[in-house]
Amino acid sequence: MSERRPDVLNKAFEFQAADDARKAGVYPYFKPFDYNDGPESVIDGKRVTMFGSNNYLGLTTHPKVREAAVAAIARFGTSMTGSRFVNGSMKLHGEFEEKIASFYGRESALVFTTGYQVNLALGSAILGAEDSVAVVDRSVHASIYDGVRLGQAAGGRMVRFRHNSAVSLDRALSKLKPTESALVMTDGVFSAEGDIAKLDELVPVIKKHGARLFVDDAHAFGVIGPRGLGTAHYFGLEDDVDLIGGTFSKSLASVGGYLVGERKVLDYIQHFAPSFMFAASGAPSCIAAAMAAFDVMQEEPWRIDKLRENYTYMRDELSGMGFELSDTESAVIPIYIRDDARTLEFWRTLLEDYSVYTNPFISPGVLPRRSLLRTSYMATHERKHLDRGLEALRSVGKHLGVI
Ligand SMILES: Cc1ncc(COP(=O)(O)O)c(C=O)c1O
After folding, report:
1. Which residues line ligand 1 (CB under 6 A)?
2. I need a surface site. Which of 137, 211, 228, 313 has the fewest CB within 10 A?
3. What is the pLDDT of residues 343-394, one digit of tens each?
4. Do 368 and 328 share a domain, yes or no?
C-alpha cells in the first residue's frame, strides 16, 4: 500500500482568490488583447485608451521594426532552437552586442533571451559564492530577487537597504565582513513607482566601501538620460556603474535582454550562468526587431522628447487633480489608492465604463497599504488620448472618493 503523505498540489487546489475575483468580475490579469498596437488598443472587440503598456517609444508597429522582423523570418527562419552557448548564437546576436556596447561606450555587451534571465544570470554567476553579498534596494524588480536567490542557494548572501536611501546603504555596507565582496543592485527607474535611483547619492557610498554597482535599466533605457541612455548617463555617472542591464521588451519593442560591462566579466557570466547557457537564444525576428527599434530610437530622437513631454503633462495634471503620486520622473506614473478593493474597483470602472486600460498593483504584489494603479505613457500618445484618460481618471477618482 502506498504511504499516506500530504499532496504537493494541495496549495493549488486550495487557492481561491483568483476564482473569487473572477466570480466578482474584478479579476484584472491575463486580459486577452485583440490588438495592442499603440496608444489605443482593442480588448474583447472594444477600443481602449492604453495607459498600461511599456511600449514607451511606440515602436512595436513602426514600419522599419516590423519589416526587420519579417525579413529576419524570411531569411533565417523562426527560431535557432538552441542556446547561445551551444547551437543558438547567430552573427545577428554578435552584431547587436557590438552596437549596444558602442552606444554605451562600453567594452562589451551580452544579449540574452529575456531581461529576466539577465538578472538570474548575475545572481548565479556573480553572487553564487560564500564571500559574495548582494546589497539590494528593497523595491527592486522580482527578477533581481530571483537571481539573488540563485546566488544564495550557492552560498551567497543578501542584505537589503531602504528604498533609495544612501544612509541605509552605508549602514548595510558597513556591516559586511572585511572578507566579503559586495554587488549593490538597484533598478534605474523603479518598475512600479517610476522614481529614479539616486545614483548621485548612492555612488559615493559604494565607492567608499569598495563595492560594485549593477543598475537594471529596463524602464530607463529610451526614457531618461541623453539619447535615452538611461540612469547612469542621466547623472553623468556612467564610469561609476559596473554593470547595466536592460530589456528589449519595453522601449525596444521586442523580447530579449542585455548586459553591458567589462569583457572579462561578461565572458565569465556567459560561462557560468545557466539562464544564459541553457535556454534557447532570442529568435532572429526578436533580435532583428530590437535592433531596428534601437536604430529608430537614434534616428528619431523626437520620440524621447515627446515621451518626456507626455509623462510630464500627465504627472502635473494628475497631481493637480489631487491624486497621490510617487516621486516619479519617468513614463511610469503610479496613483496610490492604498486599498486593494478600491484599487480593483477603480481599475474595473476605468476599463468598463470609460475604456481606459491601466494596471492595478495590489497585495500580495505590494503591501495592501501601498496598493496603486500603475499608469504608463508612450511617445505616440497624442494630447487627445491623454485628455480623454485624464477626464476618466478625474470622474472615477471623484466617484470613489480617491480625490
Ligand atoms: C526592472 C525590470 N527588470 C527586468 C525585467 C524583465 O525583463 P523582460 O521582460 O525582458 O524579461 C522587467 C520586466 O518587467 C523589469 O521591469
Report:
1. 114-116, 141, 143, 187, 191, 216, 218-219, 247, 249, 257
2. 313
3. 999 999 999 999 999 999 999 888 889 999 999 999 999 999 999 999 999 9
4. yes
What integer best gives the mean pLDDT of the chain?
A: 97
State residue 1's pLDDT score: 57
Peptide bond into 364 cis (omega under 30): yes
Residue 122, domain extent: 63-299
Chain centroid to Cα 283, Å, comes to: 20
Which of 141, 217, 219, 244 to mutate for ligand 1's pocket (most ligand atoms within 8 Å of CB)?
141
Pairwise CA distance, residues 305 & 80, whole Å:
37
Q: Tell me, yes or no, whether 191 lies in a domain.
A: yes
Among protein residues, the one with the nearest Cα to ligand 1's atom 10 is 115
Does residue 320 sit in the same domain as residue 199? no
User: Which is it for strands 157-161 and 132-137: parallel, antiparallel or unpaired?
Assistant: parallel
Ramachandran area for residue 395 (φ above 0: left; ψ -120 to 50: alpha; else beta):
alpha
Q: What is the pLDDT of residue 37?
A: 82
Of ligand 1's atoms, which has the minimum distance to the CA of residue 189?
A: 1
Domains identified in the chain, total number: 2
Same domain, 249 and 305: no
Say yes or no to pLDDT of 2 above 90. Answer: no
Whether the predicted pLDDT of 332 surpasses 90: yes
C-alpha–C-alpha distance, residues 260 and 270, integer Å: 12
Say whether both 318 and 292 belong to one domain.
Answer: no
Q: Do 266 and 362 have their domain in common? A: no
DSSP secondary-structure letter at 79? -
Backbone angles phi, psi at 375, to 5 degrees: -115, 150
Q: Is the pLDDT of residue 178 over 70?
A: yes
Q: Which three cell numbers stand for residue 356?
A: 481606459
Give one DSSP letter per residue of 99-142, joined into a string. Answer: HHHHHHT-SEEEEES-HHHHHHHIIIIIS-STTEEEEEETT--H
**Does 361 map to a domain?**
yes
In a domain, 15, yes or no: no
Cell numbers representing residue 1 in the block? 500500500
Distance from residue 223's CA to the centre of ligand 1 (Å) = 15
| Whether residue 37 sits in one domain with residue 76 | no
